[in-house]
Structures are given as structure tokens and as C-alpha cells.
Amino acid sequence: MTSRNPDDEAKGPAIMEQMTALLGPAGPFAGYLRSMDPKALAEQTMGLYKSMFDIMLGKSDVAPDARDWRFQDKTWTANPLYRRLAQAYLAMTDAVEKLIPEDLPWEDKARAQLAASIVTSTFAPTNTLLGNPAALARTMETGGSNLVRGFQAFVKDMVNNGGLPQQVDDSTFEVGRNLAVTPGKIVHKTEMFELIHYAPATEKVHEIPVLLIPPQIGRFYFTDLAPGRSFAEYAVSQGLQYFAISWRNPSADERDFGLPDYVEAALEAIEAVTQITGQKKANVVGFCAGGILSSIASAYLAAKGSKAINSFTLCVTMIDFKNDASLGAFRLPTMLAVAKAQSAMKGVLPGSELHKIFTWLRPNDLVWNYWVNNYLMGEAPPAFDILAWNKDSTNLPAQLHKDFLDLFESNCLIRPGEYEVLGTPIDLGAIKCDSFVVGAVTDHLTPWKCCYKSRSYLGGTSTFALSNGGHVAALVNPPGNPKAYHWIAPAIAETGDEWLDSSAKLPGSWWESWAKWCGERSGDLVPAPRKLGSKQHPATIDAPGDYVVS
Q1: Residues 288, 315, 433, 518: which is the catalytic one?
Q2: Per residue, what are the HEC states of 148-206?
Q3: Which single residue of 93, 137, 289, 311 could bond 215 by disulfide (Cβ 3.0 to 4.6 Å)?
Q4: What is the C-alpha to C-alpha distance for residues 485 and 352, in angstroms, rounded to an integer?
Q5: pTM of the shown model
Q6: Does residue 315 have an active-site annotation?
């Protein structure tokens, strides 16, 4: 499977822009160092010297976290030299982190922490051959062939992957063959999206249909991965009439697609779904940025007096952007202005560039882990469907990019009547239907407590589910996984911590709790439709359609 990027020929400029964006947060960090009280800085320096002296004498009890993949090899504890090397690195990392004042505003602190994490992860000894005992052992075992393979991979990545190590072997995956294979038909198509009507898998289905609105960047099929790992497949197995939007991958020609256009598209999809099923309402499910879009579209309908939204599901979505999250590191006016200007010049924000930014938010796991695996150990990256999807990036139209950044900067969505779409001021509190809100335990993009806070801006009664996993892995969390678990309870507590104390921890996927919750609100069971689509919206080509591969 290949990643489609219309700007592949501009590798050099893309790398420079990437590094500019990443180094932006380092400015405040350097400023903090310059402005630190000399006495405090001297104390921190002396503390580091003392730690290093204790390490040299073998008196230090500094030890890596047992979960840190970098120091799993037994040599790090058995060999005195390597034990001291690990301790020295950890002491240095701790000293750098302590240079960040605790009383900083959270956005400044996020920028400083991001800069510190990039710097400290880069200098980990495991990123080098001599500083990585496992890589040295592999070199001796293979006679150096691992390094030959690693150098070949490095050169290939410099040319074809923007200088980052490949995270996945996607050669075995193909959309329509072993990804996105849940049966369905395209029943509505516009210049912005295709609407998929999935074939029922049960003799009877619930009356009121479900519409998934996925993020506008990234292919929709992370919700329809391989059989057994597909949200779409599970939804129809539970007797739900299930529809999904597949967004078009925009080029510079679609640079003017903005947030109001996507709201209109979502409204058009909701209308098509209700017309096809003969219902007056639909259950709307929004994932990530698609949740922001779903919120705006639902609030718009509420402002117009429409009751078209039967229930509302919001997954890993922040509505209040002034929360303590990794993305706060990029809320710097100059950085936002530069980002808008760059996408305006190109017509799109290439998905590959956004992917790189998100990758550097977790450098240890998403950069240096693969650096060691691919280049030092000489191993191929894993073949994993989620990572294959993640690599298959899409673009963001320049206008939509600007609109999102404006929302991010102004944070006006949470203030009733301040945000206006299609000529109508909206209030998220006017969404009075029941809502089901999902967060993820280890989500670094939209931390779960921020997702919990999102429910406070909605009207109606909310249920909150907290899933194990990260931002994407929590969403791709099918039943049957023995490691899956989730907490669930009515979202009536003031804070996430208070909610967690009162919630029930259940084994299995949140999909199961959601399907039960949604089914209870979706009307009677009726015979499943014999044909997909309708006269007004006739079925055409098979799912997953054309836009997902363009």
C-alpha cells in the first residue's frame, strides 16, 4: 500500500518546515534558562554534579522505569559500565526536566516540555551502536549484516520518508482486499464525500440509523480495518443500520473547502441517511476532529429547531482547546500564523507533514524506537494494520486548516452564540439528546480528562466511557481482546477524577457498552432492508468506494 502525497517532490522544503515547527517550542525553553535565577540554576547544576559523582562511585540508586523499552536488555543491570551510562543519562534527563518552572502557564509549560522531550530522547545512549548493548550483540551475531541492512533502510528513508524511520511494513495491506472489506455500497456522492450504506448482518435491525462522521484528515477506514477489528463490522452485527462518510482527499484545487462546507456536507449526509431509512432522526457518531464537526452540525440543527439528532456520540474529541494537552505546545501566535501561511501557499496541508508533527510529540515511541529497530538492529518494521492506515495520510484543505487554527486560537466554540456557521450562531448546550462520550487512558493528543470536560458543554444526559489504549488504538478496540477494558458511568461528576472514582471497570471493549446504549435508543427492531440505498439515493459501486483510494 502506498502513501499518496502530492508534494513528495518537495521533500527538502517539507523537512525544513517540519523542523521549524518542531523547534518553535524550544524558544520559550531557552528563554526560561536565560531568565532563571542564577542561584537556582547553580543549585540544579550542583545537584547534577552530585548525582554524577554518586554514579561514578557506584552509590547511585537511579534506575530506569521497568517499562522503558530502551533499557530492557539485561546488560544494563549486569554490566557496571552500562549501568552507570544509563544512570548518567537518566540523571541528565531529570535535571533538564527540573529546569522547567512548575508555575509556568500550562501552554508555556507544554512548549518547554515538548522541547525538553525532543532533546533528551535524542541523546539517549540506545540511539547509538556503542551505547546499545542489544545492537552490539546483534552485530556480533550477524557479522555486521544488520548494520548493512540498517544503512540501506536509512538511505531509503532519507529519500522517501522525509528523514524519519519507517514505522510499518505496509506491503501486505490493500484497501478493499484485507482492509475496509465490510460489505456495503456507495449510496450518495458529492465533490466532498461518499456515503457508505453497510449491508445488514442480522435479520432485524433497529429503526433509527447510525451515521459515522470521521476526521477530515486520514482515511475513514481505521473504523473498518481487517475483519474482527472493524467498528463497521461490529455495528452491523449488533443490528444497527450503519452508515459512514468517506471524505475526499483534497488537492490544491479544493483549497477553498472550509469548515462551513464540511458542516453542509455533514448535514447533507444526515438528511440522506434519514431519507434512505425513512426515519426522522439519526444517531450521529463523531471521531476526533470529526467530533468537532459533528458537534457544530448538531448544534446548528438544534439552533434551527430540528430534532434530527437522536443520540450523539463523541470519541477522543476536545471541544475546549485551552486544556492541558500536548497540542497546547503549538498555541503560539507566530507558529499559528506561519502554519496558516504555509498551507495557504500550497493550497493544502499535506497529511504527511501533519503526521510528522504528531510523531515528534512522542519521540521515544514513534521515532527512536524505529530508529533502533530499523537501523541498528537491521529489522524490518512490523506489519500492522493501524500503522498502515496511519501512513496512508490525506491532505487538509488550506481553508479548513485555517478555520481549525482559528478555532484552536480563539476557543470560541465553548461560548454560546460566539461561533457562527452558515449564518447561524450556535450553542453546544442546545444539543439536548443523550450523549455517549469516549476518552482514552494514554491519549497524548486529546487527554481523557479533556474529553470528559467536553461533555459539560453539551445539553442532555451524558454517559462517559474510558478505554484502555491511545488516541487511535482505543478506537480500534474490538471485543474479544483479553487485554481490553474500560470504565463506564453517567457523566455527572464535576471532574474526571471524581467520575473515575465512581465508575465501574468492565472487561472488554467500549464498543460493547456503546452498542447496547445506542440500541436502547434506536427504536424497535424491524426487518432488515433487502436492498441498500433508496430510489432517491440508489446504490452504486461497492464499499469502500473511490475516494478512499484517491
Answers
A1: 288
A2: HHHHHHHHHHHHHCCCCCCCCCCCCCCECCCECCCCEEEEEECCCEEEEEECCCCCEEE
A3: 289
A4: 32
A5: 0.89
A6: no
